[in-house]
Design a protein that fits this description.
The protein is mainly α. Helix content is about 60%, strand content about 0%.
Length: about 90
């Protein structure tokens, strides 16, 4: 025997809406920190300041991860080899 379950309409609407990659959330950010973020990023809106700060944070963390791997690949030239190669022309 098959049981057919009916999904409530409010759930159906949620699944039909396209996901645009933006998540809305509520966060308590100290006014002075947000003001500094807006000043440093030269943002015109709070959203712009927060998005810019998050992007910059992520960029710095990715760079830190990359620097941990510096010099670990034996197939790449060392700095000294690169300088010698450039001198040869």
């Amino acid at each position: 025997m098959h049981v057919l379950m009916r999904i409530p309409p409010y759930f159906e609407l949620e699944y039909r809406l396209p996901y645009n990659g933006i998540m809305k959330t509520t966060v308590d950010i100290p006014d002075s920190d947000l003001a500094d973020a807006m000043r440093f990023t030269k943002a015109k809106t709070k959203r712009e300041a927060i998005v810019t700060a998050i992007q910059e944070f992520n960029r710095r963390r990715r760079m830190a991860e990359l620097t941990r791997h510096a010099g670990t690949c034996k197939d790449l030239m060392s700095v000294e080899e690169l300088v010698q190669q450039r001198r040869k022309g």
